[in-house]
Amino acid sequence: MDHNTSEVTEDAPLTDGFNLLIDALQLNDVETIYGVPGIPITDFGRMAQAAGIRVISFRHEQNAGNAAAIAGYLTKKPGICLTVSAPGFLNGLTALAHATTNCWPMILISGSSEREVVDLQQGDYEEMDQLAIAKPLCKAAYRILHAQDIGIGIARAIRAAVSGRPGGVYLDLPAQLFGQVMDAAEGQKSLVKVIDPAPEQIPAPHAVIRALELLKEAKRPLVILGKGAAYAQADDAIREFIEKSGVPYLPMSMAKGLLPDDHPQCASAARSLVLKESDVVVMIGARLNWLLSHGKGKQWGEAPKKFIHIDIEPKEMDSNVEIAAPVVGDIGSCLAAFLAEMGGQWQAQSGEWLDAVRAKVESNVARMAPKLMNNNIPMDYHGALGALRRIIEKRPDAILVNEGANTLDFARSIINMHKPRKRLDVGTWGVMGIGMGTAIAAAIETGQQVLAIEGDSAFGFSGMEVETICRYNLPVCIVVFNNNGIYRGTDVNTSGGSDVATTVFVKDSRYDMMMQAFGGVGVNVTSPDELERAVNEAMDCGKPTLINAVIDPESGTESGRIGNLNPQSVVKKK
Question: What is the CA radius of gyration of the chain?
Fold first, then answer.
């Protein structure tokens, strides 16, 4: 008998690593696995599917991982990604690091080579010390060597993924583990149901009082809502706090819709004003990272700022600037404490500051309105996104997936969101390639229609997953903004050689034909009116659809709105 298995008696019912892993996942309410089949996890996928777990097979592990990451964000339960060893593991690792950076719960489960061969570097099939590679890139990493430890290993991974600040967890399963046999009754006893995996973390009362006293003193306060606020699903408490305080709020891109973007206190259309002029800033589930210029510099103006910061991670405080009033705890508990302390005597903000913010919002919205109504051929970003804005306004339950450079930057400022967790995009890293994995998981986890707005460059990272969308007949409508290249399709190779410029794609490509090739609906459009009709038809019928939206190659700017991060040489090569 293998030394890694428990004692078994003759004729006793048996179980093995395959079944114990399935039982452990189902005991903890795992309903869906995203992955790519192959050695050594092919049979596990088949068996999990037969046991009633939905197993969604992708064309590339990174896309499966991105699906698992966004599933964690939408459900507050760890999304599960299953990959093969070595190269497959490495493909999934990018998504695992992405999930960890964005604070989304995800578990990457990968088969691996046997320890004794890996440790002696004897050249096993896809030999790699995967656990060592994963550790720096995720919140926690574990290896299970014995079948009787599968239950506790799954429990540890789940608790690590969702407790405190959520993140990615790696679980290493050597191939021999799956075939280990043990007594079935003992196997069932070894399974663990995780109880209260993400316990509430109550803020200190004095921290709450300190924060509210600072807020009371503010003349020009501002609330910034981050995607952590959306993840928390404390929607009612957030709305009550915003409205009771009377403070204007600025939602980061994935926090859009926590309150409707047309709410009278929403300052999205006055972003520059509120960042520069505010004196007290309340951060809720947001971080002062590069997306907010680290809380300093020209974007923040010369007016002195004091920050109130609500976060579950104490180390986040003072990461870039001094935090005058740190409040450590989960967002739901913190806001409940705020509301209890505010009571019925709170004097809501009003007067000149809120009037100034509203006036700026109204002015900017009025100035933008004609641009969003144009029907130019070829389309520019404003006309095309104006059409899609009208669609989302009429279909507030639809989930918007968005990535690209200009396509992302224009869309997040133009398209209003009306409900929480309906906008899914590139997150903290601004990473390209999340589109199709995110769209697939959004459709599966929510059952809602998905509208994915993609730059042509961004779509290229995961475009083969249109076959996956068709295979599972998902209600996903993809709009590819096709301007023949990265940023713009007009660059020229100045060397005189025959190669096109590095940012230029095949001119007048027909991405819609890709969808047709797999049995979906493909449409080519050249005007905002055509685009609006095509998307409405796609969302009415619910069939997998890809719309090739022809955008003026001259439209857009270098690197979208973060061109300052793309250094350019000032020295000409002689």
Answer: 25
| pLDDT beyond 60 at 509 | yes
Give the number of domains in the chain: 3
165 and 223 co-located in one domain: no
Is 113 in contact with 85 (CB distance < 8 Å)? yes
The CATH number covering residue 225 comes to 3.40.50.1220
**Segment 257-303, tens digit of pLDDT:** 999 999 999 999 999 999 999 999 999 999 999 999 999 999 999 88
Dihedrals phi, psi of 51, to nearest 5 degrees: -80, -5
- H-type alpha helices, 163-281: 175-179, 184-190, 205-217, 227-232, 235-245, 271-277
The parent domain of residue 44 ranges over 14-190
pLDDT for residue 1 is more than 50 = no
- What integer pLDDT is reported at residue 10 of this predicted model? 64
Neighbour-count burial for 171-183, b at 16+ CB within 10 Å, e otherwise: bbbbbbbbebbbb
Bridge partners of 441? none
Tell me what pLDDT residue 473 has: 98
Looking at the structure, tell me whether residues 154 and 214 fall in a common domain: no
Q: pLDDT at position 559, please? A: 72
Q: Is residue 229 part of a domain?
A: yes
Buried b (16+ CB within 10 A) or exposed e, 92-107: bbbbbbbbbbbbbbbb
Provide mean pLDDT across the span 508-512.
Answer: 97
The residue assigned the tokens 């409707």 is 260
CB distance 34 to 71 below 8 Å: yes
Residue 175 domain-assigned?
yes
The answer to whether residues 315 and 417 belong to one domain is: no
- Bridge partners (DSSP) of residue 328 are 311
